[in-house]
Design goal:
The chain is mainly beta and 177 residues long. Helix content is 0%, strand content 66%. The chain has no helices and 12 strands. Strands 1, 2, 3, 6, 7, 8, 9, 10, 11 and 12 form a 10-stranded antiparallel β-sheet that branches. Strands 4-5 form a two-stranded antiparallel ribbon. The two termini are 46 Å apart. The N terminus is likely disordered.
């Protein structure tokens, strides 16, 4: 049973299998996720989500071979399945309040992502953190953000050919005119 202070919980669960085939690959993707939203009271809103994704790819490799009748591309070989699993989640707490005639909105939250490739790449976990503050400055809606990507400065391979990004800190400011 939910606490009485949670006035409008929303829970959405889903699962979506996808199958695709091309001339040289066949991919089966299975996705499952949960979205949760709690309107705690007039000031606080809690948002959270989780996603799980598993891909299974089979590659058919065609290569030229020399036969008695000449070169041909009809010697398909099959690679072992190329399986990947990834997960991601986020949680944000939004606070909207007024001080006199000035409206404020503050969002604090974080996210994490994992990736695991069964045959080639080691798995990794990346943590991100964010803070957003919106108010009026000189009668203009202004948003201050602070983002930290790869909070723990994890070294990882984003793909077989590309290193992942190191820690990144950004402080963008947006004003509406």
């Amino acid at each position: 049973m939910l606490p009485a202070s949670i006035t409008s919980p929303t829970l959405m669960m889903w699962r979506r299998p996808i199958r695709r085939a091309g001339p040289t690959t066949r991919t089966e993707t299975d996705r499952a996720g949960v979205n949760i939203k709690y309107d705690i009271n007039d000031t606080f809103l809690l948002r959270s989500a989780y996603l799980y994704k598993k891909d299974r790819r089979d590659f058919i490799i065609t290569y030229p071979i020399n036969t008695p009748t000449g070169w041909t591309m009809y010697a398909p070989g099959k690679t072992p399945p190329f399986d990947t699993e990834s997960q991601g989640a986020y949680t944000y707490l939004d606070a909207a309040f007024n001080t006199g005639a000035v409206k404020h909105k503050l969002t604090v939250g974080g996210s994490w992502d994992t990736f695991k490739e069964v045959l080639h790449i080691n798995s990794y976990i990346i943590f991100d953190l964010g803070l957003r503050y919106t108010t009026e400055v000189l009668d203009r809606l202004t948003t201050f953000n602070l983002y930290v990507s790869n909070l723990t400065n994890e070294d990882y391979w984003a793909s077989e050919w590309q290193l992942g990004l190191p820690r990144n800190i950004a402080f963008p400011l947006r004003a509406e005119f």
